Each structure stands twice: as structure tokens, then as C-alpha cells.
Amino acid sequence: MWPSFKGLSHLAFLAWPVNAGMDGLGLGLILHHKSLGKVFDVRCMHIPVQDRTPFEELVTWVEKTLRAEHSSSPKKPIYLVGDSFGGSLALAVAARNPDIDLVVILSNPATSFGRSQLQPLLPLLKALPNELQITVPYLLSLVMGDPVKLAAVDVNREVPPTQYFEQLAGNLTALLPRLSGLADIIPKETMLWKLKLLKDGAAYANSRLHAIKAEVLLLASGKDNMLPSRVEAWRLSNSLQNCKVKYFKDNGHTILLEDGINLLTIIKGTSKYRRSRNHDYVRDFIPPSTSEFKQAVEGNGVLRNATGPVLLSTMDDGKIVRGLAGVPNEGPVILVGYHMLLGIELAPLVEEFLREKKIMVRGMAHPTLFSSQFSENKEFSFNDYLRIYGALPVYPSNLFKLLKTKSHVLLYPGGAREALHRKGEEYKLFWPEQPEFVRMAARFGATIVPFGVVGEDDLVELVLDYDDMMKIPFLSDRIRSDNEKYESFNIRAGMSGEVANQVFYPPGLLPKVPGRLYYLFGKPIQTKGKEEMLKDREKAQELYLQIKSEVETSMSYLLIKRNEDPYRGVINRTIYRALRAPMDPIPTFEP
To answer: What is the arithmetic mean of pLDDT over 167-171?
Structure first.
């Protein structure tokens, strides 16, 4: 049977999780169907305990249902989520249907069953007396997953530590009777049949890997005691045509049932969510959920406390106020400003727009950050968070789509050259000579808000820059080699001036006792009614230079005014938090 969890009616495609693990009940989907159901029409495969359908017949059955859905919506992708044994089943279906647009998501697939750690125990299981059948679930529990992560799924992390551990202990205790119940759900005969299915499924899928054209996302656990999932992930990534691996080093075999894992977040972070043949960074973007935002706020806590960000904005009458009241709520809006070293200013800026104005700022980033050469395989990388929080490659087509959808766009004309500047170049703009974004802003009547940000010199000292590193033989060779890989992503290639020097390198930084970050968003500049700039390049250039000048003026203002801030240093801010107002904003200078 295929129980359906209906998603939003206007969503463009269906998800078909083939989530038949060893239990055959689709339990791996329990923690995820609610979030997935918001964007997918979710179906879950259930294999009854008494069922003895051979593997190839299961493949045919799934295939028949899948083809029926494809025929009704041939331009929409179909998602297959395969957990353990379901991974072999999903791969087998994909191999037999190369003409269907499939996105296959595998969780510790059982294609490695022939090399499983359980192989020496299988003869013992067959010879096990019926009287000892009740011990099997307890033995399997030792290899299925981390019991602490399983028990921590619904524990409230915001309660005091004593209550947290009480709830955790209660959940762990509650797991024991559930394990004994599995002996009734999965009797010995059923267990032996499922082991045969695992063997047949692995052999069938492995013999057809070459025929799979589907897009594959593979989740591999580092502490899988049932299957050699980490090694299998790299084998499959080399055997499949289009496979991306995400490695979860601290999770066990039952990763989808463990705390801290959100399948929809992983899909979003790897840009696997799409409504048509190709992923569209604008149309396919799903805003962060409340839980994702909460997780990010917790993760950025150290940076936020260390930098104590102060955000100021300018009202229409020119008055500077604390907060973002001066930034328009209605888009399209382009925030144009200075890019700090390594983009230190990004996280506090995006977080505050979400917190204060409930606005998702779409940051335009260097295309290299979205390339396969720059991606990481660990569970949640910096690149994943960029995608989850709306970043997209800085291409004209993407800016066009964002403005058309009345979005708030974060744009850095100085790009990588500013974010990876040299010694003595802090707060210096490296903008192109041509007004790249002004004419497009005028086309859509967008509001342009120039902004300046200062404070990097109060946080870190740049001790080794690009020029220094190019004098060190082994470092210079590595930098040249890496940048040759990224050359095709250089959006400034062919330009004149220093902005064309988009070289990637890892700057050597020395931390300081933290100061404070200060942002000033200038007076909004309206382009509505200025369509003449679409044809008049001189007027477009004039506005461009005005925007650049206001960014520089904002930084000059902040550099002077921060000297009046009694809470510029982290020590004074910490004392204020401890003695006065733990939750209220920390004061700053009077604008």
C-alpha cells in the first residue's frame, strides 16, 4: 500500500520515498514526512510482514506506479528516497527507467550487503532456536544506530540540563520494550527472507549501476555498524554518472531516525530541490523554516556575541536610526555595499533582516562557491548554509529573476577582490568601472540602498595576504593550481582594473580581542520613473558613482562614530549583559 501525505496543492512535483529498510515499514520517514509534506506529495512504501514478493517483482511494482505518475506529469521530476534495502530498490528502478527524470536519495544503501559486518552472523541466525528469537532485536539494536541520538529526537533542548537528561533517560528506557516488540513484528522466518532480499537486491542493483542516469544524493554514516557505508559511498560515487555524497561521521545506520537530521534541509542545502528538469535558484528556493532559523541563530551565537553587531539605517528625511526601519519592506530592493574580509558581515546581516523585518535577503555570491570543485562532503558545510539561506550565483539572469519577483537582493560589486583583499586595503572599494546593476534596477523600478560596514580591523589582523603567500614556494604553487580550476568561474575576466584580479587564497589571520561590527544603510534611492537610464549611459554612470560615494561616506561615518561607543569592546558588552540586561540590545553611540 502507498499511504499518501498530501503536500501543498500548488507544488509542482511528487516525492516517492522507497523507504523500505530492513523493517519494511518505512519507519525512516516518520520524522520527515511533516516537513517533506509541505513541498512534496509524499508516498511511503510498506511491505507487510507476511509478504514474500521476490525482489524483481518489487522493482516491477514500484516501476509501474512510478511510470503512471510520470505519464500524468512528464515534465516534473520524481524523487525516490531509498533507506538501506530501499537504496538497492531505488537504484534498480532508476536503472530500468533512464528516460524518467529522477532524483534518487540514498541513505546508507544496502548495495554493500555482501561486505556487511553481519555476514559472519548469518549462519548463526539460521541455526538460532525459536526460544532465543527474542534476543535478535537486542542484538540488531547494537548495530542499527546510536541509541542516544535515537532517544534525543523529541527532547526539548531549551530546558535546564537536569530536565534534559531526565527526558533523555526516559526515552532510552522506553526503547527497550519497543525492541522486544520487534520480535513479534519480525519473526525468524521473516528475518531470513529479508536477508535474502538484501542479498538479491544488492546483486541486482550493482549489476546495473552503469545504466543509471538519475541525479543521486547519497547520505553515508561514519558509525554504521551494519554496513560499510562510508567505503560504499565512495564506490558508488565513482560508479554512478551523477552522484553527490554527504558524509555524516557521527551517525549510525538508522540516520533518518536520529536526532539532528532533517532530510528536507539536506535536500535544500545540496540544491536538489527543483520543480523542472534543471534547478532554478530563484524559482526553486524554499525559505528557511522556523527550526532552520533557530538552528542557525544557535550556531551563530558565538559570532554574534563576539561582534555585537549594530545595524543603523537612514529614514527618508535623512535621520539615522538604530535598526532597519529605513530599509523599505516592499521589493524589489538592492542592498549594495562593501564586502568585508571573508564576508564576516554576512551572517549578522541576514539574521537581523529575518529577525526584525521577516525578510529573506537573497545574497549574490561568487559562482565558484556553487561549483562541484568547491563543494564539501561533510554533513553541513558553509556552502550548504549559503544555499539554505538564499545565496545564489551572481549572474545577470539571476539578478533579473530576483528583481522580477520583487526580492531583497544583497549585492557586492567588489566581490571576491574585496572579500580577499590585501594588507592595508580594508574599507577600500574595488568596484568595476561600469554600472553593472543600475540599469537593471531601473528596468524594474527597484530601490537601491547603499550601505557601509566596518569592524573587521577590530576582530582580526591580516598577517599573511596573497602577496606574502606568493613568495612561499609550496603555497604559491597550491594557490596557482587551485585558481586554474576556478578560472572558468571568473565573472570579471576581461575587465580592466584591480577588480578583475579575482584570486582565491586562504588569508592568514590573527584573532584580536573582539571589537564590534557596525552597519549603516543609507537613504534609499528610488529608480522608479527613471527608465531613461536604460538608454542614457551617462545618467546610469552618474547614479552608480553616487551609490559608490555613499557607501564610502557611510564607512567614514562609522569609523569616526565607533570611537564614541562605550561598548565597542567585548569585555564591556559582556559585563553589561551579565549585570544589566541579558536580553535587551546593548547600547551604542548616538547616531
So the answer is: 56
